[in-house]
């Protein structure tokens, strides 16, 4: 079973009522147990894809299977296996937090006693137990996101889909969410996540799919993708100011201001060499960091390539 | 879903619907009771005492069943149309769509909520009417079944209105331009025997006339029309509206993109 697919999509298309084609034939597979990042610029079609999987959007054509179940055959059974954290808040803000969870469980046919127990478990895990009697509108934005995660879990889905769960969530809470999701994934839940924070995708996900303008333009493992990165740019903070960038063979160096140096390093070249050269010239480096997140660099590259390909 | 799960799911929607109107009872229960009480006072007591008998009953006694029915119809309808449209408008419907709930349970849940509101208001209004008249209950079986079925019918009609509605304006158009006129012309305030022959026949295409008459028969034992035909019409409408609602939801109309 470990090799089974949690999700498989074939030639999925969607044309909205206004004639706009949001998906132009997407095929992808997510293995059971995977932590999958579905990335893409605004309007790429991520939420549309997720909407179809969860029955919020009607597909135009194509096939969707959730584990062994074809949604055209038995959507009802398929839905039991999925938990959705949507991009937009969609709970009733006048309902108390606990009631939202218990009702959601109720729609899945889970009796009230069990529903209350599950609500307690997930509200505690997500740090919302103190707020259980409050109306949802009185929660902060980050708490509302966590409420939606708790709600998506009450029926214990095997596949959890999160559409930008960390949008507008502060760093501390985001980190605790990451930890929570990592543990959930480790305990066997397959997770699909969309996000615009690529650092998040890089930290959490093992597999990655990039959608652009309704097409899947990349679908590979995080490791393989990062290996494709040809150059990396580092920013070095210098101890003493420089007049001009040192000229070092193989490295493209650029002075940003008199104490900040940018170095573009190709993959086949060692960083040691750069430091040896700098030391030789008496240039002392205080700290060093990546200029951009590695995945971000790739992402921008892939999407640009795709746009260029489309123009010609 | 197993039968037990379906029961839990239906109960969940029903309780949620009841809590919704119960929490805002000042807006949902009190106003219709006040309105109908004013009808009792003005038409029944003040004007009614000048009118004399209608079909052998005091005018007040004659109109009470119709007024109760009017309250039930309006409130069953209003509850479902506003609740369903709100659920759709604010996307809460998605909570149901992502669950394995079959569409007919969504329909039954909302309709049950509408019936609960209709009957709650109906009972409250009946209680108030006791101050103005001594109600007799000629045939409680007919009385209860008619009011229940009528309430279900208009809850379904409200649901359809909610499914079709694209804006908040759309949820008040039908009640204002269709429901209210049909109710007023549905023999609440008069017996159709008072109308000239032509208008009597026109009135007969108004389904509300049959409900009001049958309900009144349950209280007073008199009806302008056949009771059997009334049941057939009410049940016929229920079946048509129910199937239509299921069909629309299944096709995703108004709820899925
Ligand atoms: N109901 C709709 N009717 C018409 N077009 C729509 C509808 N919903 C979405 N679209 C269009 O479909 C495209 C894909 O939208 P979608 O919400 O799937 O993007 P996304 O990848 O989730 O973007 P974001 O990162 O901004 O959330 C967009 O161009 C959007 O304008
Ligand atoms: Mg989106």
Describe this structure in words.
The complex is a heterodimer of chains A (312) and B (257). Chain A is of the alpha/beta class and 312 residues long. Chain A folds into 2 domains: 5-227, P-loop containing nucleotide triphosphate hydrolases (Rossmann fold, 3-Layer(aba) Sandwich), CATH 3.40.50; 231-294, Alpha-L RNA-binding motif (Alpha-Beta Plaits), CATH 3.30.70. Chain A is 36% helix and 29% strand. Chain A is built from 10 helices and 14 strands. In chain A, helix 3 (97-107) packs parallel to helix 5, helix 4 packs across helix 5 (141-153) and helix 7 (198-204) packs across helix 10. The longest helix of chain A is centred in the last third of the chain and has 18 residues, at 294-311. In chain A, 38% of the residues are buried. The model of chain A has no long low-confidence stretch (mean pLDDT 89). Chain B has 257 residues and is mostly helical. Chain B has one domain. Chain B is built from 11 helices and 2 strands. Chain B has a two-stranded antiparallel ribbon with strand order 1-2. In chain B, strand 1 (53-54) and strand 2 (57-58) form a beta hairpin. In chain B, helix 1 (3-23) crosses helix 6 (103-129), helix 6 crosses helix 7 and helix 10 (207-220) crosses helix 11 (227-251). The radius of gyration of chain B is 19 Å and the shape is elongated. The relative contact order of chain B is 0.14. Classes of the chains: A alpha/beta (312), B mainly alpha (257). Chain A binds chain B through residues 16-17, 51, 54-58, 75-77, 79-80, 82, 84, 86, 88, 90-94, 102-104, 106-112, 151, 155, and chain B through 1-2, 4-6, 8-9, 11-13, 16, 23, 87, 90-92, 94-102, 252, 256-257. Adenosine-5'-triphosphate (ATP) binds next to helix 1 of chain A. Residues 16, 18, 20, 22, 40, 42-48, 87 of chain A line the site of adenosine-5'-triphosphate.
